[in-house]
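Postdoc handover notes: sequence design on the structure in folder B. Input tokens:
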């Protein structure tokens, strides 16, 4: 943590030295003290990068001193900012306050320097004696997204036995299938493998994964379960007026389902949640899979014989380590011997093998002997696996450590949305931008510390989590490094929290609905991150908008965004979304004040905005704004596009029945020359289609259209987008029975036209080749959902990059061209299970490819 604090302090000092002298006056003597401190901290940071083992004994002292120095620096900025606010308020009531230079007391820095200087001098002497070493940080250059290996080791027999209980028994009574074993042995991995198995997916119309864990709340579990189920059923199945519990009981009584209850810790929890699972005597083949460490839980539940997972055999342990550390590498005999010693020391626990494999995969082979000795030492000092797991932190580069510890602050078993995690890392100052954040994430994934739990349509990582034992290790390490002074996770009582950390806290996050009053936030003067989406408060107290250092602010509807938002001049992310208690009322709108245009660093603006206010006069562009999602009724004038010119992600919703005569000037969208993701939705009608003819920017990588009812002829403009990777067409985005991407030849055999036809033949062929080359050249994912399409004519050359095709609720579409099966990149086709003709067609394409081309094409039923 010392490295992270030093890095943050350097950023803070740089900001202070570049502040406006008129607003934040610092004496010459004060500036010199700050510069002296900067020189010392830069020396220490460099030493931490290059000599991590030698620096270990000084880490705590450096962390404490650097924390203290940064507190002093940021309090200085806050006090000056607060003085200005008070001066403005007094001037507004006719009592102007004379500006006098505030000579801030920097004597505290002398105390800090007294602690830091001896350490910096000692480190400089060591560096001079030993010479310059290469840095041990992870910044070796950009890293591409690592491939996620979905192949399992040693689970084949378990998988076979569990599938036998789940598939091919359509009339059997509902069963509960338990998986037991110690922490880190692979229970969740096995359950996830079963859950995603092609045969299992096709067996169960409804599938839901829920996590119970230690600190469960029944209401939250039921809400999450219902939220997942309602996305898979027709809206007519339940009444909106019913209670959550009654809705669940109705759905799960009438429908066949698979529910995985992961990480069940107690019998009490089971008895509290099982009432939502419908009739236990139903005979439609429904299944519930439970994972638990406690065999007594299984006995009390009274289920069938549990599938108890054992430690891995030496043979499987070696296979797993090889996959994680040196998959295709031939090892020298001495290195192989070291690897075999590591396997033995891991004791057959898959989690330990995976984590140690992550260390080896990122280390030079000359260092493997040292790693093996450390693993062996950890075994000898404790029979438990904790110390072996902790080695993954010991060998973690210093610049990756704060990012990892931050992940440990999320609740147990919490699925972490990567887009949110990246915003938080940037707000904290761990990374400078999104690309750097992704590099850090990829490096952590390569070390197997977070597990990727879901993917975006273009196969980018979408969410992740960390294993309970890894999280426990992170929390223990955070305590050792005094990290809790900077980060609060889910404290219900802010007043109590303020008594301990009001003057030091940088991040305050909530993850569960709670009754905590937000009035205590006035005491947290140094906050950079504030996420109170799930509190039951209906407004933010005024002092929140005096938090000068705030960079990330997230709160729940129906709170309003006041004009005072303009005071948050360092704000980078403003997120207003429905809290969990209001998830089913997500139509709440958020009104934005005109002052939103006064936030120069704003990068992400996310909510259900009723309108983006049109700036008056010569407004300044939001130069840093990358995300605007979701804004309603946006009129895309040239002026507005010029003010949003750096946008990379934009989502707009229109209402066709309410504003049929409005011209939203969507032809100006092409002026957004940095735009990569665009979502355009029409709700409740299609009266806009005559007015709206979007002209899409050539930079688009992802396009979602819903409710527009364009003609399929209009698809030509989309097919030519050169970078488009993902295309989602929902709710009759296009209308009409036939869609053809094939240019029909004119076979007129009139002799008088023959000569002209021959002369033009070469040109026509060239034009067709160009058209084919432009047709969905980079498209990897295509979704057509709720469409009246009956006939689709195309050929493989028009979708050469397609990897995944989803056809859902296309009831009139009975077949697709067989040539689609010849797309070499195509791996998966998903089809509505109720459309029997289309399903048979797709299965026929799959079988043909397997029999004739030895290709595996997966077909999943939705």
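Designed sequence:
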């Amino acid at each position: 943590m010392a490295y992270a604090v030093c890095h943050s302090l350097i950023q803070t000092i740089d900001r202070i030295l570049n502040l406006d002298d008129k607003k934040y006056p610092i004496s010459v003597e004060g500036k010199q003290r700050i510069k002296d401190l900067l020189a010392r901290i830069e020396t220490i940071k460099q030493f931490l990068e290059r000599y991590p083992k030698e620096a270990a004994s000084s880490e705590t002292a450096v962390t404490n001193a650097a924390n203290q120095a940064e507190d002093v620096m940021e309090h200085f900025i806050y006090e000056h900012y607060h003085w200005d606010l008070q001066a403005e308020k007094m001037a507004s009531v006719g009592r102007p306050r004379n500006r006098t230079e505030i000579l801030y007391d920097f004597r505290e820095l002398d105390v800090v320097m007294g602690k830091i200087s001896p350490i910096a001098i000692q480190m400089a002497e060591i560096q001079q004696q030993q010479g310059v070493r290469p840095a041990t940080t992870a910044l070796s250059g950009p890293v591409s997204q690592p491939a996620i290996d979905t192949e399992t080791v040693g689970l084949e027999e378990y998988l076979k036995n569990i599938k036998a209980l789940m598939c091919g028994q359509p009339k059997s009574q509902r069963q509960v299938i338990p998986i037991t074993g110690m922490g880190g042995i692979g229970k969740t991995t096995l359950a996830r493998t079963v859950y995603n198995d092609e045969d299992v997916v096709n067996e169960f119309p409804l599938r839901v994964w829920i996590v119970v864990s230690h600190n469960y709340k029944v209401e939250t579990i039921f809400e999450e379960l219902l939220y997942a189920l309602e996305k898979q059923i027709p809206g007519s199945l339940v009444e909106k007026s019913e209670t959550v519990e009654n809705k669940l009981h109705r759905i799960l009584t009438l429908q066949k389902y698979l529910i995985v209850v992961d990480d069940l810790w107690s019998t009490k929890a089971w008895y509290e949640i099982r009432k939502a699972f419908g009739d236990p005597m139903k005979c439609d083949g429904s299944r519930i899979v439970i994972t638990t460490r406690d065999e007594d839980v299984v006995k009390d539940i009274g289920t069938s014989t549990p599938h108890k997972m054992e430690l891995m055999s030496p043979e499987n342990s070696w296979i797993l380590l090889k996959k994680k550390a040196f998959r295709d590498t031939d090892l020298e005999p001495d290195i192989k011997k070291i690897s075999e010693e590591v396997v033995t020391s891991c004791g057959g626990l898959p989690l330990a093998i995976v984590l140690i494999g992550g260390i080896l995969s990122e280390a030079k082979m000359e260092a493997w002997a040292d790693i093996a000795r450390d693993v062996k030492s950890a075994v000898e000092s404790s029979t438990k696996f904790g110390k072996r797991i902790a080695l993954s932190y010991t060998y973690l580069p210093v610049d990756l450590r704060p990012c990892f510890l931050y992940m440990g602050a999320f609740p147990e078993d919490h699925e972490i949305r990567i887009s949110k995690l990246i915003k938080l890392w940037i707000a904290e100052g761990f990374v400078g931008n999104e690309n750097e954040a992704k590099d850090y994430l990829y490096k952590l994934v390569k070390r197997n510390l977070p597990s990727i739990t879901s993917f975006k349509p273009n196969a980018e990582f979408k969410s992740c989590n960390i294993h309970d034992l890894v999280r426990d290790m992170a929390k223990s390490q955070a305590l050792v490094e005094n990290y809790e002074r900077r980060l609060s996770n889910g404290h219900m009582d802010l007043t109590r929290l303020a008594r301990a950390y009001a003057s030091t806290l940088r991040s305050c996050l909530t993850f569960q609905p709670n009754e905590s009053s937000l009035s205590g936030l006035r005491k947290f003067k140094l906050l950079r991150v504030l996420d109170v989406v799930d509190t039951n408060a209906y407004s933010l107290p005024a002092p929140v908008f005096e938090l000068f250092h705030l960079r990330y602010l997230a709160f729940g509807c129906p709170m309003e965004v006041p004009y005072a938002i303009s005071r948050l001049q360092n704000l980078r992310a403003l997120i207003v979304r429905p809290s969990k208690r209001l998830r089913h009322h997500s139509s709440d709108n958020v009104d934005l004040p005109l002052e939103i245009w006064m936030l120069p660093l704003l990068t992400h603006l996310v909510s259900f905005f009723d309108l983006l206010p049109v700036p008056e006069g010569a407004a300044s562009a939001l130069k840093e704004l990358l995300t605007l999602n979701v804004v309603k009724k946006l009129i895309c004038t040239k002026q507005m596009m010029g003010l949003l010119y750096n946008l990379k992600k934009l989502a707009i919703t229109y209402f066709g029945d309410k504003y049929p005569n409005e011209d939203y000037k969507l032809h100006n969208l092409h002026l957004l020359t940095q735009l990569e993701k665009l979502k355009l939705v029409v709700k409740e009608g299609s009266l806009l289609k005559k007015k709206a003819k979007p002209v899409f920017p050539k930079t688009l990588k992802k396009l979602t259209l819903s409710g527009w009812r364009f003609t399929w002829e209009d698809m030509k403009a989309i097919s030519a987008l050169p970078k488009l990777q993902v295309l989602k067409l929902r709710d009759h985005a296009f209308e009409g029975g036939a869609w053809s991407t094939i240019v029909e030849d004119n076979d007129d055999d009139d002799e008088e036209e023959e000569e002209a036809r021959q002369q033009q033949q070469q040109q026509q062929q060239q034009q067709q080749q160009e058209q084919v080359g432009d047709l969905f050249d980079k498209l990897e994912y295509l979704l057509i959902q709720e469409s009246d399409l009956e006939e689709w004519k195309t050929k493989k050359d028009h979708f050469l990059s397609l990897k995944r095709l989803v056809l859902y609720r296309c009831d009139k579409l009975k077949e697709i061209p067989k040539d689609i099966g010849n797309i070499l990149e195509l791996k998966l086709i998903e089809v509505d299970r109720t459309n029997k003709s289309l399903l048979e067609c797709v299965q026929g394409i799959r079988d043909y490819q397997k029999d004739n081309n030895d290709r595996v094409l997966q077909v999943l039923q939705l």
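Context for whoever picks this up: Confidence is low (pLDDT under 50) at residues 764-773. Don't rerun without checking with the PI first.
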